[in-house]
Amino acid sequence: MAVELVIFVGLQASGKSTFFRERFAATHEHVSKDLLRNNKNPNRRQAQLIQAALEAGRSVVVDNTNPAIEDRRPLIELGRKHGARVIGYFFDARVRESLRRNAGREGKARVPDVAIFAAAKRLVPPSYSEGFDGLFRVHAADDSTFEVSAYTESSGSVPGADSPE
Ligand SMILES: Nc1ncnc2c1ncn2[C@@H]1O[C@H](COP(=O)(O)OP(=O)(O)O)[C@@H](O)[C@H]1O
Ligand SMILES: [Mg+2]
Q: What is the pTM of this model?
């Protein structure tokens, strides 16, 4: 199987790390800036970790909010450079849902609400035009299950947008 670079995109508390543990922990390395909080240059360190894994033929998940195209571009480039399949998972939680799940977290896991608003403002759903080989949508349902579906760009509603659903 080809080496994969999996890029998560989604607001804080949208279920990314839980999804990683359930679906990828056995097969993919976990790279997350949450694990690099004490690093002076987390972006550089993250790139080094991704590069080391891909060079060794190990698949990786990049578990950050990765809200903007500029956040994803260097990751996608790195994947391409190493011949990895680049796959995106878009976690479709809206702001209200994210705030609610965040409020239920303890200690360091809880982020200030303003960080969620800031990420929502920057969030641009991923697109094949960025260079993804595959894209999926993930919905964290309230019964603690995850619904994964093929991502179609026409269905790419922006979390936090006020449209009813
Ligand atoms: N499928 C789910 N349904 C309901 N709650 C979930 C689900 N997945 C995760 N959670 C809860 O939501 C919160 C945020 O999950 P987490 O995986 O840490 O999100 P993220 O990594 O995106 O910040 C946690 O308290 C977690 O227990
Ligand atoms: Mg997380």
A: 0.92
